[in-house]
Amino acid sequence: MKSTYLDDNIPSTPGKFKMEKSNYYHRLRWHPHLAKVTFWSVVFFGLIFVFLFNSSTISTDLSHKSLKIKSWGGPGWEKRVKSSAKIRSETETGYSVLVTGAAGFIGSHVSTALKRRGDGVLGLDNFNDYYDPTLKRARQVLLEKRGIFIVEGDINDTVLLNKLFEVVHFTHVMHLAAQAGVRYAMQNPKSYIHSNIAGFVNVLEICKNANPQPAIVWASSSSVYGLNTKVPFSEKDRTDQPASLYAATKKAGEEIAHTYNHIYGLSLTGLRFFTVYGPWGRPDKAYFFFTKDILKRKPIPVFESGNHGTVARDFTYIDDIVKGCLGALDTTEKSTGSGGKKKGDAQFRIFNLGNTSPVPVSDLVSILEKLLKVKAKRRVMKLPRNGDVPFTHANISLAQREFGYKPTTDLQTGLKKFVRWYEKYYGSGKKSDH
Ligand SMILES: O=C(O)[C@H]1O[C@H](OP(=O)(O)OP(=O)(O)OC[C@H]2O[C@@H](n3ccc(=O)[nH]c3=O)[C@H](O)[C@@H]2O)[C@H](O)[C@@H](O)[C@H]1O
């Protein structure tokens, strides 16, 4: 009723408003003591106005947030979430998996493989612009065609994650969302803390409180071996001399995971990936931008270590990595806690997922030259001290023993598949501004 009254007094045209205003001033002349009241009222309302104006920026931010919240809520959205995470009835394993970073390179491949065999898969990705987001959107389109819904959101968004766990009882979380790239860590260090530490802790917090708690498999990195010189790198080796903030956050992730396993009974498996490559890969990786620049006849920086030493990587093909991820997932034991309380010891594992045959970066360039039929303009330079390590080499016997992990794709074969995809996706250099 009151609002109707107020509404009735709101001038509907500027003309009417002016009339009221003049009336008001007229009354002021008859009641001089009202001038004081009016003055303080103006000051008071002025302050309120200033406050509202200032908070309008906050409310804009909030409205972005609430827009986001709106964009993921509602019955239609919940239906999509449930249907994507639904296990196909005849499937052998019958998992319902939340894949974070599903629009990413490894995430999109793993999601597809899980869905193909009948597991329920729900993706989560914030589609950030660390590298060309159109590539992430293209992966999303592919996944959608396969019945995988990717929820757009950040792993730090507690409200969203809680909602997802309310809608679906995930049996597993494949946590692949991260801020990647060893060299970019010098430009944007906070993004590594945000995703690889704060975001990971948020995921663990949600999982620890979930009932039932899911088993978690997450992405660590070969970079945790840092400046180690003993090869091949074995899971038992020291990991306390990282060469980049990226590596340090991945190492911190392993320690944090151990804590959650110890206190809350979460089943946790960390995978140390060794320079993964292949179709639908990441444009920030050397093999990817070397391809682009060789095709454009642009010079490429090829690193060498001191005294013209070789810089080498244990490049691992994406299909082998996917097999490793699924093997790790299939051998997880259940988490033992519930509602944030540990009920018994839970599984904690770390595995190397590499190829076990390091290749010098100069050989990688030679393979690309042959595949692309273009001579590279090599600019050989000293390995910069910005996060890179001279070599990586995985000992994979642990993964082999635990779930029969056995990579089968050599660099030549894998790069051939990559180049085929690259040429199809980007055409003859037209779309290659990534
Ligand atoms: O497995 C990992 O744990 C990490 O793999 C990846 O790191 P890296 O192995 O360093 O891959 P990538 O950048 O492709 O460089 C490949 C090679 O090219 C050399 N390299 C690189 C750049 C350049 O300009 N020139 C050059 O010679 C360079 O020295 C190196 O020898 C991921 O970025 C990281 O997110 C993480 O997942």
Task: Spell out the key features of this protein.
alpha/beta, 13% strand, two-stranded parallel sheet, 434 residues, 14 helices, single chain, globular, binds ligand UGB
Describe this protein's structure.
This protein has a domain of about 70 residues. The chain has 14 helices and 13 strands. The N terminus is likely disordered. The strands form four sheets. A seven-stranded parallel beta sheet has the order 3-2-1-4-5-6-11, sandwiched between helices. The site of the ligand O=C(O)[C@H]1O[C@H](OP(=O)(O)OP(=O)(O)OC[C@H]2O[C@@H](n3ccc(=O)[nH]c3=O)[C@H](O)[C@@H]2O)[C@H](O)[C@@H](O)[C@H]1O has 18 residues, from strand 8. Keywords: Isomerase, Membrane, NAD, Transmembrane, Transmembrane helix. It holds the Pfam family Epimerase. It catalyses: UDP-alpha-D-glucuronate = UDP-alpha-D-galacturonate.
Please provide a brief summary of the model.
With 434 residues, the chain is an alpha/beta fold. It has helices at 2-9, 14-30, 34-72, 75-85, 105-116, 133-145, 158-167, 189-209, 245-264, 286-295, 318-330, 361-372, 397-403, 411-426, and strands spanning 96-100, 120-125, 149-152, 172-175, 215-221, 268-273, 276-277, 299-304, 312-313, 316-317, 348-353, 359-360, 377-382.
Distance between the termini: 59 Å
DSSP summary, beta strand count: 13
> How big a fraction of the residues is strand?
5-15%
pLDDT below 50 for ≥5 consecutive residues: which ranges? 1-30, 50-69
User: Ions, cofactors, ligands: which are bound?
Assistant: the ligand O=C(O)[C@H]1O[C@H](OP(=O)(O)OP(=O)(O)OC[C@H]2O[C@@H](n3ccc(=O)[nH]c3=O)[C@H](O)[C@@H]2O)[C@H](O)[C@@H](O)[C@H]1O
Over the alpha carbons, how many angstroms does the gyration radius reach?
Answer: 28 Å
- Describe the sheet with the most strands: 7 strands, parallel
Strand line-up across the major sheet: 3-2-1-4-5-6-11
Overall average residue pLDDT: 87
Tally of helical runs: 14
